[in-house]
Amino acid sequence: MADVREEEDEEECPELVPIETDYNSQSVQIPVTIITGYLGAGKTTLLNYILTEQHNKRIAVILNEFGEGSALEKSLAVSHAGELYEEWLELRNGCLCCSVKDNGLKAIENLMQKKGKFDYILLETTGLADPGAVSAMFWVDAELGSDIYLDGIVTVVDAKYGMQHLTEEKPDGLINEAARQIALGDLIIVNKTDLIHQEELDELRHIVRSINGLAKIIETQRSRVDLSNVLDLHAFDSQTNENLQEKFCHMQTTRPHLDKSIITVTFECSGSILEEDLNQYLQNLLWEKNINNKSGNPMEIIRLKALVSIKEKTQQVIVQGVHELYEQEETSVNWESDTERLNRFVFIGRNLDKEILEKCFSAAVIKPGESS
Ligand SMILES: Nc1nc2c(ncn2[C@@H]2O[C@H](COP(=O)(O)OP(=O)(O)OP(=O)(O)O)[C@@H](O)[C@H]2O)c(=O)[nH]1
Ligand SMILES: [Zn+2]
Asked: How far is it, in rounded angstroms, from Cα 107 to Cα 248?
């Protein structure tokens, strides 16, 4: 990594080269951004756009074909029958590309060996993939976790067909893939706006927001989006803390728009919680699934973010969750005073009931002034 930088900066006076802590630290962590979205929404168009834009990064692109029988149409990919993954291609700006057939982890390991050659990974999922399962790859493997981190999930929505994808009924009450992809997005790109009228666009935007009350929504044509909106989002680590604080102020619980629809629920609750009680609350919700809504249906959490106050900890703790996986991380931010500790939660999922979610958490909280 250092060699690459030196080559680049060869002509410059060394004293003027800014010190980037990332490059100086022992192990450089490489961010991975997952690009998801329904079939044909504009994911590859977005990848190509990112690669050709000015970004001063060496980007590795992984095209992910988990479980898909059909051949990739990608002009970027090279096909070699019978091989797990395919040749690396050199792209513009020294970027790299490879196509992953089955085992995402293997491909990333392969990538890691070439780590010196790039500093960002973009992973395009197939249109029907559950980005939650893909993002889990970066959470379950601790060793990998030390080299790569999940930066964010970008969901591309087809402005013309998005509504149709979202309203499609699934058998046996399964979650609609298009809705799940929106629920998991940290950034949602509503693409192909050239193909629809403003009123349709407003309606689609409204539905997207009703599903995900947390994500930033951007409208595009040909997936042309300012790269600062896509890369380095830090959506899954404690650097989001400030960001999250600010977002909470604007965010509210959304109302369902479609049948069995996915919504966002937010709430605040003051006080502190014992770590074991927090784990119990999250595990009841995510693992046991024994917290039901008023109709008796278990709540299904797809995405969760929270800022919590753990008893005896001076620092704010951030909780991140995707489906059954969750993680707590201490932030660098201290609580200002013991009396003003405010826990804040965002849940995105199905069959959610704000009142019940809040009540269950609140029951485990030690209110200011109370002793445990
Ligand atoms: N009219 C219009 N067409 C677009 C726009 N963006 C992309 N397309 C076209 O839509 C088609 C699908 O785009 P891709 O980028 O391949 O979509 P994808 O999500 O990667 O598709 P899959 O990988 O097959 O799921 C291509 O023919 C693009 O040229 C847009 O903003 N407007
Ligand atoms: Zn594609």
From this structure: 37
Query: 293 CA distance to ligand 2 centroid (A)?
Result: 38
Instruction: Please report, for residues 1, 66, 71, 333, the alpha-carbon distance to residue 34 in angstroms, rounded to integers and kept in the order given.
Output: 23, 14, 20, 28
Per the CB < 8 A criterion, the answer to whether 59 and 121 are in contact is yes
Position 332 confidence tier, pLDDT thresholds 50, 70, 90: confident
Q: Are 31 and 123 in contact (CB under 8 A)?
A: no
Supply the mean pLDDT for the chain.
Answer: 79
Q: Where are the alpha helices (DSSP H) in the chain?
A: 2-8, 21-24, 43-52, 104-113, 131-140, 142-145, 162-167, 177-184, 198-211, 241-250, 275-283, 354-364
Mutational pocket test of ligand 1: of 35, 36, 44, 64, the residue with most ligand atoms within 8 Å of the beta carbon: 44
**Taking Cα atoms as reference points, which of 174, 123, 145 lies closest to residue 325?**
145
Question: Is residue 194 within 8 Å of 75, Cβ to Cβ?
Answer: no
Domains for the chain: give ranges and CATH numbers: 30-237 (3.40.50.300), 244-251+261-366 (3.30.1220.10)
Residue 359: partners with Cβ closer than 8 Å, 6 or more residues away:
none
pTM over the 0.90 mark: no
Give the model's pLDDT for residue 108.
Answer: 65
Q: Mutate which of 35, 43, 45, 50 to test ligand 1's pocket (most atoms within 8 Å of Cβ)?
A: 45
Q: Atom 13 of ligand 1 has which residue's CA nearest to it?
A: 42
Ligand nearest to the CA of 158: 1
Q: What percent of the chain has pLDDT over 70?
A: 70
Residue closest to 250 by CA, chosen among 278, 217, 201, 203 = 217
* Crossing angle of helices 354-364 and 275-283, rounded to 10°: 150
Structure tokens, 359: 């009540």
Inter-residue contact 118 to 30 (CB < 8 Å) = yes
DSSP one-letter code for 362: H
Query: Which pLDDT tens digit goes with each residue over 167-184?
Result: 888 877 788 999 999 999
ipTM above 0.90, yes or no: yes
CB of 285 closer than 8 Å to CB of 305: no
Task: Report which ligand 1 atom has the smallest distance to the Cα of 193.
Answer: 31
